[in-house]
Specification:
The chain is an alpha+beta fold and 395 residues long. The protein has 3 domains: 190 residues, 2-Layer Sandwich (Beta-Lactamase); 108 residues, Beta-Lactamase, CATH 3.30.450; 71 residues, Winged helix-like DNA-binding domain superfamily/Winged helix DNA-binding domain (Arc Repressor Mutant, subunit A), CATH 1.10.10. 42% of the residues lie in helices and 19% in strands. It is built from 14 helices and 13 strands. It has a 6-stranded mixed sheet. Strands 8-7-13-12-11 form a 5-stranded antiparallel sheet. Helix 1 packs parallel to helix 7. The longest helix has 40 residues. The two termini are 43 Å apart.
Length: 395
């Protein structure tokens, strides 16, 4: 991508001018740019560093423009922190006044160079938003990636300062293609995080415990269902970051399955799956355990941080978290029909469901006929299978 100064500026810059930065400086700046997506506040380090380097009052990265009722995603740096004292909301009040939104992407501009000093100082955006904050000189650029990711970058100086000179504009222009790529990477990571949260939430609602093991068999992470089983030593326990069976009789079988799954990982035999059961101290139904080798992960060479095996633990007596509202919306069940259906899914007989809901057996049978009519099921076993296989437990 070519980054250039505005056409009316005195110098052009292709984004890779050796005079803009020394090699050592450029390396340091690129480190800050590409570190941005992994920071708690993305690009906070880069924004503060460029603010100090350019002797600016304020630096801003607009990752998402406001739109309709949606607030923008805007990151700032200043001597006072992310907001200047008394700063009004750009998203809520002044976004529509901003004169820089339609500037072509990939072009570095200054407010004075774009509009002229007289027009700029008479503009409502300056007079109403920037002037009260003692911001006078603006350098900016709009960026647009190959996959449609758009952002904007601004540097602002106070009235007592001066406008940005060609060298400073060239320095910023050198960094912008890399900032754009880093923002695209950040957007891709956001998508992956959203997918991960979706899948993790679905597994939790299905009441499945999960644990990820490294190549040495140590637990890297686990979800709250697995954590509950481990804390209660309900079939599983954790010693020195490794999974063990609570019952000594099951320990050898579990360790054999774990070692086999790790060997499948090392051999790349991803279709080979191990399974076992674990007795529980309270005499409840044994836990079902499935171990699946994961695809090789190239991001870490350290065996202790390389995901190798996924462990899934299910209590066969447990029930998925079923949404009453979703059950009603899918099948148009009445509140009592919904309660009866949920208890049948939990394994109760119709008579037990009637007792649990405080109705007579005849009334329960009438409700069951209504459920059959609305779901299309003709037998109780078919109804339970239909509800368990529906999207209700994912809601």
């Amino acid at each position: 991508m070519r980054i250039a100064l505005a056409p009316h500026d005195t110098a052009a810059h292709d984004g890779f001018d050796d005079a803009a930065w020394t090699a050592r400086e450029l390396s340091a700046w690129l480190g800050l740019v590409y570190q941005g997506p992994s920071e708690t506040t993305p690009w906070a380090g880069f924004l503060e560093a460029i603010r100090v380097r350019l002797d600016a009052s304020f630096t801003t990265l607009v990752l998402r423009n406001p739109g309709g009722s949606r607030r923008g995603l805007i990151i700032n740096a200043s001597a006072h922190g992310p907001l200047l004292p008394g700063e009004p909301s750009y998203s809520e009040q002044f976004y529509a006044l901003c004169p820089f939104l339609d500037q072509p992407p990939g072009q570095v501009f200054t407010a004075d160079g774009l509009l002229g000093a007289t027009r700029w100082c008479a503009h409502d955006f300056y007079r109403q938003y920037l002037q009260p904050l003692d911001l006078r000189f603006i350098l900016g650029a709009n960026l647009r990636g190959e996959h449609g990711v758009e952002c904007a970058f601004f540097v602002s100086r106070a009235h007592r300062a001066r406008d940005f000179d060609p060298v400073e504009r060239a320095q910023v222009a050198t960094l912008l293609p890399h900032l754009q790529r880093a923002v695209e990477l950040h957007a891709a990571l956001d998508v992956l995080d959203a997918e991960r949260a979706l899948y993790a939430g679905t597994v939790d609602r299905l009441d499945v415990g999960t644990a990820i093991l490294d190549e040495d068999g140590r637990v890297i992470k686990h979800n709250r269902i697995a954590e509950r089983l481990i804390e209660q030593q309900d079939g599983l326990c954790l010693r020195q970051a490794r999974l063990h069976a609570s019952c000594p009789l099951d320990e050898r079988r579990l360790q054999r399955a774990l070692q086999a799954a790790l060997e499948h990982f090392r051999a790349g035999a991803l279709a080979r799956i191990e399974a076992t059961t674990l007795s529980r101290p309270g005499g409840a139904m044994p836990l079902n355990v499935l171990l699946r080798p994961l695809a090789p992960y190239r991001g870490a060479e350290d065996r202790q941080h390389r995901p190798a095996v996924a462990v899934f633990v299910r209590d066969p007596a447990s029930s998925p978290q079923t949404s009453r509202d979703m059950l009603h919306r899918l099948f148009r069940l009445t509140p009592m029909e919904t309660e009866i259906a949920l208890r049948l899914v939990d394994g109760l007989t119709l008579d037990e469901a009637a007792a649990a809901t405080g109705i007579t057996k005849n009334t329960a049978r009438a409700h069951l006929r209504g459920i059959f009519a609305k779901t299309g099921a003709t037998r109780q076993a078919v109804l339970v299978k239909m509800l368990l296989n529906s999207v209700v437990s994912m809601a």
